[in-house]
Amino acid sequence: MDPGPNDPWSLTITIPPDSLDTLHYYFYAIDNSSNVAISETVEVAVTDNDAPVFGTDRTDVVTEPDGLLEFSVEVDDNIEVVDAWVEYWYGDGPPTRLELSLGGSVWTALIIVDRTLEDLHYRFGSTDGFDNVNMTEDGTVGMVDSQSPFIDVDRTPERGTTGDPFEFNVTAGDNLGIRRVTVRYTFGDGELKSVVMEVVANLSHGRAILTHTITLPSGSTDPMTYNFSVEDLVGNILDSEDRTVLVVDDDPPEIVHDGVSEAVKGLRLRLTVDASDNIGLAWVIVLLRYGSGICVSFRVRSSLMATKRG
């Protein structure tokens, strides 16, 4: 302690940066005759004015809608970190504050990301025992949807009947939502048709029930092959595997005849009939019985018989 010409005796010290221990001091003076004076002891309370310091931000820079995202950051303080939190928001939306949990020197919190394509913005905050607060600059997590849509249930029947309505029915979904579902179908080797299906019910978790009804051809039993194409809001597409529907003919043939009211014994009688079917006739049979006699059947082979109706 060396004073200047007109200055009091003084000494400048540096308080330890990592301790809150009370400082105790007193002065001890000796003159040239070895006389000694000792001052009273003074106690100085040491406070902390250093805010916590943020280290590495380990938060991912991109995430998936409806996926998991962990906020993760290193925080240190010269004395002790008392609390740390994150504030996050989507686009220009309102912020949400979430407390972080300490694991080692890293503070973390896990969230389920909203179903949105808006970027997620966030900032970290921390405080020590003396209410010194530090906040980070804003960070951004880009939103990237790489998840394909999915088909939950296909309720389309495995069998249909000629000339009757047939309904395609599927439950499809996506983490964000469905833009459209298309059904593609063909009969045998015929033309491929493609139709956008109608939403009949919206379900939870981005799912929906969609249907489309067609009328099966009345004049063919060619099997029908179909599949679904599901597109989500950002253009990710899922194409289902082909499935086959058996088309069955359940329409009976039609018979038109005037009938014969009289016949002369011993003479020839011509029996005629007009028969048709939506697919084709296998054969036509006439059954004869005289009086109460035995019924006898004959196969009709007339070239005048129609074999298929339009």
Number of strand elements: 28
CATH C-level class of the largest domain: Mainly Beta
CATH topology value of the largest domain: Immunoglobulin-like
Helix run count: 0
- The averaged pLDDT comes out at 88
Uncertain residue ranges? 304-310
Structural class: mainly beta
Query: Which bin fits the share of residues in helices?
Result: under 10%
Topology:
Elements: E1 23-25, E2 28-30, E3 36-38, E4 42-44, E5 53-57, E6 62-63, E7 68-76, E8 81-90, E9 96-99, E10 101-103, E11 106-112, E12 120-128, E13 133-135, E14 139-143, E15 150-154, E16 159-161, E17 165-173, E18 178-187, E19 193-196, E20 198-202, E21 207-215, E22 224-232, E23 237-239, E24 243-248, E25 254-256, E26 274-276, E27 284-288, E28 296-300
Parallel strand pairs: 6-14, 16-24
Antiparallel strand pairs: 1-4, 2-3, 5-7, 7-11, 8-9, 8-12, 10-11, 12-13, 12-14, 15-17, 17-21, 18-19, 18-22, 20-21, 22-23, 22-24, 25-26, 27-28
Architecture overview:
By secondary structure, this protein is mainly β. The protein has three domains: 53-143, Immunoglobulin-like (Sandwich); 150-248, Immunoglobulin-like; 252-310, no CATH class. The protein is built from no helices and 28 strands. Strands 6, 8, 9, 12, 13 and 14 form a six-stranded mixed beta sheet that branches. Strands 16, 18, 19, 22, 23 and 24 form a six-stranded mixed beta sheet that branches. The chain starts with 22 loop residues before the first strand and ends in a 10-residue tail after the last strand.
